[in-house]
Every structure is written in C-alpha cells, then in structure tokens.
C-alpha cells in the first residue's frame, strides 16, 4: 500500500503520466503481447490494473484527477485514496491519504514546497482558447508545443525530452511533474500507415511511446526515488456496439489502465 501522505511529507518527487484515450483492453493486450517491454519492467507485479475513470473525456477526467479523484477499482471496496481535498468534519480520512487544505491538488502540493509542472498535448492544455487555459492555469509552469500533439509521429520523444529538461532545472526541490501523452490520442492510424484509427493502431501508438516513457522513468528514478502514477484519462470507441469516440459511458471508454508505484 502506498502512503502518499508520508511520501509528500518527505518531499518525494511525483511523476503523473496520463496516456490520453488509452483503452484498458489495448494496454493489457500490449502488455501480454510483449509490445511494451520498457513499461512492463517498471509496472507493479501483474501489470496494469483495470479501473473506472471519473470522466469520459479529457477535461472532466483531469479536473477530477487534480481534485483528488483518481480512477477507482471496479469493486465495492477501495484502497485508501492517494490524495484528497480536506472533507467536511464528519468524514474520516485514512492516515495513508495525503489531505490537502486547498481547492485542488496542485495548490495543496505547493503549500508543501512542491513545484508543479505540466507538459501538455491536447487542446485542453494548449492555452489556445479560454477553455484550453483552465487546466494549465492550475500549475506553476505549463508547456505546450505543436510537436507535443498526436499528429506528430514522434510526439512522445519531444514531450519526454522536454520533461527531462524541466526535471534537471528543478533538482533540489520537490517536483510534481505531469505529462499528458498524446501518442495514444487520435489520430494514431499513422503508426500503422493507415488513415483510420483502430484498436490496433492505438496499440501501435502505445508500443511507440513505450521506449520514451521507459527512458523518462528510468532517467528520473536513477537519481532519487519518485512516486510514479500511470493511467489513462478515458478510452475511445472504434465502432464498439456502433459507438465512436469518447464522452459516452461505454465500457471501452470508462475502463482505463492504472498503475502506481514508488521507484
């Protein structure tokens, strides 16, 4: 069991990676097929957990994440949450849970000396529209460039290179480093040389991202311990029961891969 309260009180760095739109079945199949060897070597024993996302598309899912609501196990009994906004007095928070007395996690971490940094990808992190400024505004620093986005075939390499530069710049201070990976977001058919997006092309996108995410995690954790959280914000439908896209309560959208470990 991870005690986020102890981890954050001690000033341990945190890496939070969301693999945008990654379905649980795609992540699990890629893991079992050996398509993601770098991540497989770093994931907890057994690989990805199946969890339910709190939001069916990027904006509500991340608003929930940054408010303390990470994906939940699909069963009645839940482990202690990693973090939680201070609740009303009648509710008891487990000692393992980091309780922040602030309206969001990023502000709460700042009260404990953390520098919070966002490496974004989709337009909700771009600041190109008023709505696209809501999530970045929560962070001390936020970065977005067109080459971080899914139409760029080497987007994860660009994102990881920038994330490692940021981590080097902030050595000596607790860091919350957030990375929203774009490769698994549509369009990803180009990873198979096709114009349509499918389950297979998303798996190919994840296989591409695997090497760079492995490089990110191993480089960071070679210098000091990190709490590493990996999950999808939601899944995507590719014709399942006639559905396409996200923003719908279909199981392929709501079931997401999740892993958390200290490395």
UniProtKB/TrEMBL annotation:
Domain Sulfatase N-terminal as annotated: residue spans: 13-250
InterPro entries in the cross-refs: Alkaline_phosphatase_core_sf, STM4013-like, Sulfatase, Sulfatase_N
Keywords for the protein's UniProt record, in alphabetical order: Hydrolase
Any one Gene Ontology molecular-function term assigned to this protein's record: hydrolase activity
Similarity-based family: Belongs to the sulfatase family.
PANTHER family reported for this sequence: ARYLSULFATASE FAMILY MEMBER (PTHR42693), ENDO-4-O-SULFATASE (PTHR42693:SF53)
Protein name: STM4013/SEN3800 family hydrolase
């Amino acid at each position: 069991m991870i005690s986020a309260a102890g981890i954050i009180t001690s000033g341990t760095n945190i890496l939070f990676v969301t693999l945008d739109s990654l379905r649980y079945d795609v992540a699990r199949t890629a893991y079992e097929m050996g398509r993601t060897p770098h991540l497989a070597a770093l994931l907890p024993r057994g690989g990805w957990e199946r969890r339910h996302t709190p939001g069916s598309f990027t904006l509500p899912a991340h608003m929930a994440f940054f408010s303390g609501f990470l994906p939940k196990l699909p069963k009645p009994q839940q482990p202690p949450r990693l973090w939680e906004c201070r609740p009303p007095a009648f509710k008891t928070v487990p000692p393992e849970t980091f309780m922040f007395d602030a309206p969001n996690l990023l502000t709460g971490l700042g009260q404990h000396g953390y520098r919070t940094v966002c490496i974004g990808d989709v337009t909700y992190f771009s600041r190109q529209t008023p709505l696209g400024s809501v999530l970045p505004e929560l962070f001390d620093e936020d970065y977005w460039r067109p080459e971080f986005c899914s139409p760029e075939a080497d987007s994860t390499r660009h994102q990881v290179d920038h994330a490692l530069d940021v981590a080097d710049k902030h050595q000596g201070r607790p860091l919350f480093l957030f990375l929203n990976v774009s490769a698994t977001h549509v369009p990803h058919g180009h990873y198979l040389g096709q114009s349509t997006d499918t389950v297979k092309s998303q798996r190919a996108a994840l296989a591409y991202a695997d090497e760079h995410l492995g490089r990110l995690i191993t480089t960071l954790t070679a210098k000091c311990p990190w709490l590493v959280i990996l999950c999808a914000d939601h899944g995507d439908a590719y014709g399942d029961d006639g559905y396409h896209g996200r923003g719908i309560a279909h199981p392929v959208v709501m079931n997401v891969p999740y892993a958390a470990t200290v490395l």
